[in-house]
Design the sequence.
């Protein structure tokens, strides 16, 4: 069986083709990499630039030829931060589809899960706590592992290119540039701490899995890793040089020479934040995780066909949903909120589907009882026959239905929520927060809200409604039910009618 995995990252696009035998053994047939920097400038323009857009398609064109040449039975392609956030990402995905590459945009949590999968098959985890670190162009994934089990995971919407675009350092950079970058990073990590459990195992080792960390490791003695002290010394060299000097004197890749000094400070800040354990680089990443994921499901690209999944949901809703007009309105509004919040929440195509399915089913608990209908809904989803879904997906959707009202999910108080893997808990919190808001916007079940728009700044989330007639009850309900949303975004919520 031949499997091709394409990782459409914010800096680079990677391809790996493997031959897998029935026992799970793998022989690598081809590897290709193209650094196209899809995320360059996205932080300011909100779009993939025209040069990067075309370079990305050119790279995929070449990779398509390789895939066809090896006659691969399974082809998987995942897009990460740049395609989660860019306004013209759907256009890029559409053009890639024409080339024969169907890209699934994945969330930061899913990215972390697949990277963990790749690492867990590459090395045996030590008994001591370790943290996986992957610094991409648009995001950074961290996963805490103790005795081989995942304790926590987080995706930060900041990677090398996005930080470099936001910092806009001079060439060569100045002491003021460094001070401002450090200040920005402190704010990022302070906010990140709020999304993590209060008690985390302090890692004795960091395992790095990205090109940025590989380039930084080349500046160490053995080229395989570094301590915080070694990285600090190398960062100083990078900051004392301009881009050309980094190439000529330090041997930095020309395509990373303009930004690697920023990456060094980001990596150093993460090491300090995690207690300054040493870092070891591993030559695996998302694409290897995709291969193992396919092998776990018999070599099939996942998820299963969307039509089959929708039919399962509609069949259950047709039997149990007492007010399909309301549910479909909530699906529509939840999708609008999802798309507006996607850059902040680092969510992907699969999470968008899960949200739509949970929104469609969120009120089926009324078929048993109005009181605690959210809890009854959880039970019904969990115990329904839903062809096309993996069991872990059903568990997640049941939890989103459970927490569309009532107290927000908390791992100490809610056993079923606690049983979810750490990356799934984050997804449930985000999707439940969106579903609560969408449900509130149809409080009277009159479909009064025709449309909505969202503006986000550093301090607030402003939701503007296009409504027919009096929308005060919906606005008041949204204010009441948006507490979880405000907590996750660390912003106050404002809602008005336009």
Sequence:
């Amino acid at each position: 069986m031949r499997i091709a995995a394409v990782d459409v990252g914010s800096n680079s696009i990677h391809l790996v083709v493997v031959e897998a035998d029935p026992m799970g053994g793998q022989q690598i047939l081809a590897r290709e990499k193209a650094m196209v920097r899809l995320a360059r400038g996205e932080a300011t323009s909100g779009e993939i630039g025209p040069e990067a857009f075309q370079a990305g398609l050119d790279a995929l064109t070449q990779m398509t030829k390789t895939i066809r040449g090896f006659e691969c039975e399974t082809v998987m392609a995942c897009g990460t931060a740049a395609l989660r956030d860019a306004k013209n990402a759907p256009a890029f995905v559409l053009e890639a589809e024409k080339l024969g590459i169907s890209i699934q945009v994945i969330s930061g949590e899913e990215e972390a899960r697949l990277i963990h999968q790749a690492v867990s098959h590459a090395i045996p985890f030590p008994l001591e706590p370790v943290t996986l670190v992957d610094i991409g162009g648009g995001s950074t994934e961290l996963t805490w592992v103790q005795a081989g089990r995942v304790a926590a995971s987080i995706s930060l919407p900041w990677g090398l290119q996005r930080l470099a675009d936001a910092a806009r350092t001079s060439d060569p950079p100045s002491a003021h540039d460094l001070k401002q970058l450090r200040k920005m990073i402190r704010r990022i990590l302070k906010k990140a701490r709020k999304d993590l459990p209060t008690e985390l195992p302090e890692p004795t080792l960091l395992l790095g899995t990205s090109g940025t960390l590989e380039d930084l490791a080349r500046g160490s003695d053995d080229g395989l890793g570094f301590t915080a002290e070694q990285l600090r010394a190398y960062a100083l060299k990078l900051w004392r040089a301009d881009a050309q000097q980094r190439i000529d004197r330090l041997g930095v890749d020309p395509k990373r020479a303009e930004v690697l000094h920023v990456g060094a400070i980001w990596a150093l800040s993460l090491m300090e934040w995690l207690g300054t354990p040493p870092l070891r680089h591993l030559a695996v990443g998302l694409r290897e995780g995709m291969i193992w994921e396919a092998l776990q499901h018999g070599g099939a690209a996942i998820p299963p066909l969307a039509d089959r999944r929708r039919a399962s949901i509609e069949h259950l809703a047709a039997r149990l949903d007492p007010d399909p007009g309301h549910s479909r309105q909530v699906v529509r509004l939840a999708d609008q909120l999802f798309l507006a919040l996607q850059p902040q929440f680092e969510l992907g195509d699969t999470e968008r589907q899960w949200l739509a399915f949970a929104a469609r089913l969120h009120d089926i608990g009324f078929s048993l009882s109005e009181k605690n209908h959210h809890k009854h809904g959880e039970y019904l989803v969990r115990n329904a026959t839903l062809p096309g879904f993996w069991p872990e997906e059903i568990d997640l959707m049941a939890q989103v239905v459970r927490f569309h009202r009532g107290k927000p999910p908390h791992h100490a108080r809610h056993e079923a929520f606690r049983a979810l893997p750490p990356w799934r808990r984050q997804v449930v919190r985000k999707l439940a927060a969106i579903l609560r808001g969408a449900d509130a916007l149809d409080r009277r079940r009159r479909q009064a809200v025709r449309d909505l728009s969202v503006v986000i700044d550093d301090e607030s989330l402003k939701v503007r409604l296009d409504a027919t007639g009096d929308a005060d009850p919906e606005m008041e309900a949204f204010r009441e039910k948006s507490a979880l949303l405000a907590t996750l975004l660390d912003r106050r919520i404002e809602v008005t009618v336009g």
Observations:
- Residues 297 and 303 are 10 Å apart (CA to CA).
